[in-house]
Amino acid sequence: MGYPYPSHARETVVLSKYFGDAAARSYDGWVKRGGYEGLKKALGMTREAVIEEVKNSGLRGRGGAGFPTGLKWSFMPKSVGPGRAHYLVCNADESEPGTFKDREIMRWTPHGLIEGCAIAAYAIGAERIYIYIRGEFTEAWAIMSRAVAEAVEAGALGRNVFGSGHRIEVVLHRGAGAYICGEETAMMNSLEGKRGNPRIKPPFPAQSGVFGMPTTINNVETLAAVPSIMMRGAPWYKGLCLSSPKSTGTKLWSVCGHVQRPGNYEVTMGTPMKDLIFEMAGGMRPGRKLKAVIPGGSSVPIMTAQEIEDCPLDYEGIVAKGSMLGSGGMIVMDDSTDLVYQIMRLARFYAHESCAQCTQCREGTAWTTRILERILAGQGKPEDLDLLLDLADNMTGKTICVLSDSCAAPVVSGIKKFPEEFEAYIRHRRRPASSGSAPTMAARS
Amino acid sequence: MSADSPAVAHGAEQAPYRPVFVGEAQARLQKLFEQYPTKQGCLLPALWMVQEARGWIPDEGIAEVAEQLGLTPAYVKGVVTFYTMYHTHPVGRHFIQVCTTSPCNICGAEEVVKALLAATGCGELGATSPDGRFTVIETECLGACGFPTPVLIDNDFVESITPERVSGLLQGYK
């Protein structure tokens, strides 16, 4: 549902059914709503059968990459070798600007997430699950801590889950403020007590992950979808599809920015983007027109109002329109937005969050920010746009992780799709509409 | 970030350092060791324990954590400085983080920052108010973009703060 607003008729509520229902947070409340039946069912199946069911459902990673979940699980070694413990890591480091769905899943349905984690752990042969929660999510942390303790008490976690003989334990791990730790290999380093620098792949986590052991990392929303798939079956989930058969199920869209009803809306894959923004999220404020949309969290290319006209909300449809589904964090901007200023803010975000391992990222994100700041200060030169594009080219596909690509995406798409915004500053010496209380990059470093 | 500027001196930083990992805290640390296959895996949680006990992570705290986990102080310092939530200097009694990343920015987050800097008496980002009560910093995306502007005061996550709501918000923090 579009929490904090009531469910919209166009939504398909699976994950968000109990958002806002505080009684669903407790173990007993969750069991009353049919909870933990999916885990019990999974424990009665073979591991291979559980993986097969998830594969057949078409579920894909909801954290950004969209990799098929069942296939990822199948990369884990078939059996647990001596001294080779398997681990499941749940990525709850939700930090992608525009995205606020995992927080609501943890706040309202903590047991749904724990159940999904336990099913995944069983499927990949892991006895321990680390749930990596970003340090700022203090409320979600408290709710998850309580839920884990309840689940242990009830026998849904522990040495002998529901009497099955299987051991599944959950450890909550608190992050400490680093966007990059949402990248899976950086997260593994962070769990090991290191700086959160991403690792070069291969080796892939399924071979050598956290603590050098076979590891699977899944996003909160991905794992939260698993119990329903176990209970209602792969064909049901696969049937939730209005467009591309490669995009199935429901997706939570965190709609924010200049819409009248910002919130999390859960829709079937393939629902038109336009309906989400204008029908469900209430459209623009009176007298305002849509200018731009960043559909999948700040790391994906910006779309124009024209491009969203006939864009289905699925992995393939958004790619066809030149952007990506990403994490489903949709930033909507109306005609009051100073795009150059906001693109600078995003570039500054990436410069601040760069782990500084790779030259292209360390230098590129900071340089991009300074050029944009200069343009905003009225000192832009006509050649700056080519310089920014050239920099962006050097920042794309050339680094250990995709943070630098993510910084380039809004810059490149902004310059290509909204050249007049930049021209206004460079040729016509426009003054920034925004007050800009924030210090410049140079002043901060 | 300008947060590295010398903060107002509090009594606490002048007093001799008291070890954190004694008694009940030592028992908590031993429990943590059971949850990770290496002692180093407990580094982030151990640093959180120091910060919760002392308000920030002084060099003596770094040395203590290093000793407990079998690491060198230099290594631990390298990790501490990577993560923005660990304080490497004393901060106000109440630490305020305001999101100013794009989704909140287009909804007026910078006005909230201005109102907070004025109402707390901090004057500038990263500085501590003369009465030692508050420190205000800008932070990148807090993950509550639908409820601009989210503010994190100590461990309290508060949504939908506007300049008008600032003075009421601060009243609960003495």
Give structural notes.
The complex is a heterodimer of chains A (445) and B (174). Chain A has 19 helices and nine strands. Chain A has 445 residues and is α/β, with parallel strands linked by helices. Chain A folds into three domains: 22-239, NADH-ubiquinone oxidoreductase 51kDa subunit (Rossmann fold, 3-Layer(aba) Sandwich); 250-334, Ubiquitin-like (UB roll); 339-433, de novo design (two linked rop proteins) (Up-down Bundle), CATH 1.20.1440.230. In chain A, α7 (138-153) links the parallel β2 (126-133) and β3 (169-174). The two termini of chain A are 42 Å apart. Chain B folds into two domains: 1-88, Arc Repressor Mutant, subunit A, CATH 1.10.10; 94-171, Glutaredoxin (3-Layer(aba) Sandwich), CATH 3.40.30.10. Helices cover 40% and strands 10% of the residues of chain B. Chain B has helices at 11-14, 23-35, 43-54, 59-69, 73-80, 102-105, 109-120, 166-170; strands at residues 94-99, 134-139, 151-153, 156-158. Chain B starts with 10 loop residues before the first helix and ends with a helix.
State the main characteristics.
heterodimer, A: 445 residues, alpha/beta, Ubiquitin-like (UB roll), de novo design (two linked rop proteins), four-stranded parallel sheet, 12% strand, disordered C terminus, B: 174 residues, alpha+beta, Arc Repressor Mutant, subunit A, 8 helices
